[in-house]
Amino acid sequence: MHTRTLGQGLEVSAIGLGGMGMSQGYGPNPGDRDEMIGVIRAAVDRGITFFDTAEVYGPYVNEELVGEALEPVRDQVVIATKFGWDIQGGKSVGLDSRPSQIRRVAEASLRRLRTDTIDLFYQHRVDPDVPIEDVAGAVGELVQEGKVRHFGLSEAAAATIRKAHAVFPVTAVQSEYSLWTRDPEAEVLPALAELGIGFVPFSPLGKGFFTGTVDTAAPFGAGDVRSGIPRFEAENRAANQALVDHVTQLAAARGATPGQIALAWLLAQHPWVVPIPGTRRLERLDENAGATGAALSADDVADLDGIVARLGVRGDRYNEVHMGYVGR
Ligand SMILES: NC(=O)c1ccc[n+]([C@@H]2O[C@H](COP(=O)([O-])OP(=O)(O)OC[C@H]3O[C@@H](n4cnc5c(N)ncnc54)[C@H](OP(=O)(O)O)[C@@H]3O)[C@@H](O)[C@H]2O)c1
User: Fold this and answer.
1) Which residue has a Cα nearest atom 14 of ligand 1?
2) Chain-wide mean pLDDT for the chain?
3) What is the dihedral of CA 266, 272, 278, 282, to 10 degrees?
4) What 3-state class would DSSP assign to 151?
5) Measured between alpha carbons, how far is 223 from 284 in angstroms, rounded to an integer?
6) Is the beta carbon of 317 within 6 A of some atom in ligand 1?
7) Rounded CA Rg of the chain
8) For a tag site, which of 7, 62, 150, 222 has the least CB within 10 Å?
9) Which domains does the chain have, with CATH numbers?
């Protein structure tokens, strides 16, 4: 797989692997822990070098899984993790990006990841109680000590990114971005282009929706975050299916799968965009990695943009509580 370069010269595979779903978010895992380690190692065999996790996934167990899986190939891969949630009794109860907490999380993440440096350390959500300059300063100190290599932000507003970058250079911003989540286009992507910062779209397959495999009506199982997301409510999902149908038609014409078209559309936006689709299945890992070969023409990109603009998207990407944490 070819590589792309995020900010500050950080080179990663053009498509990464999101680890969250292996520990939470999409209901019961169809495989066991050893199988997940196998999926992560198979990703390395296929040239994927960019792995995404977070302290809060599990919590903690996802970092342990990623750390164990990548230990034998540690020098060949880039591991990104995240701090910033206040985790009590196994649950996130709010935010905590105080410098002392950032340091504590870094030390604990290093142990769980079985490594002596975190390649990319993102603030998971902007903490309104801690000035972003203090956050950037705290991560900058960890970089000076060699415990962290690069600084990232997630779901931050453009103004916050600018303030952080002025204190310590930001390498990547990770926010939700896909055919049906276009929020970063207004202010964040132009700011990143200007500042030379990379962008990592999370939920690039629309939480699985754009693969065409999400049943339009069936309820989601226990532990599936989509059961609490407005755009996946039965009526909205049925209306939004028209978008997936269009992507599926284009995919058939291009000899690709709908999920590959959704990822190729992201890759076509800017050369510094690196999506991190999440999957627990080997065959899907192969399919997603194959998106790098599904080049879209400028007309295809315009066609996809046009259909989303014409049909619109029914329902928000988060419920009210989670909406309160983004765009600050
Ligand atoms: N910064 C943040 O706040 C934040 C928030 C959310 C996610 N993330 C990161 O972004 C990563 C990706 O996002 P995501 O997992 O939410 O969404 P996603 O990658 O858009 O979609 C994941 C869903 O799609 C399914 N899927 C994946 N590939 C498929 C394929 N080829 N065919 C059919 N179904 C497929 C997965 O199921 P299976 O696993 O069963 O294949 C899962 O249900 C996460 O793993 C996490 O690392 C970050």
Assistant:
1) 203
2) 98
3) 90
4) strand
5) 21
6) no
7) 19
8) 222
9) 3-211+262-294 (3.20.20.100)
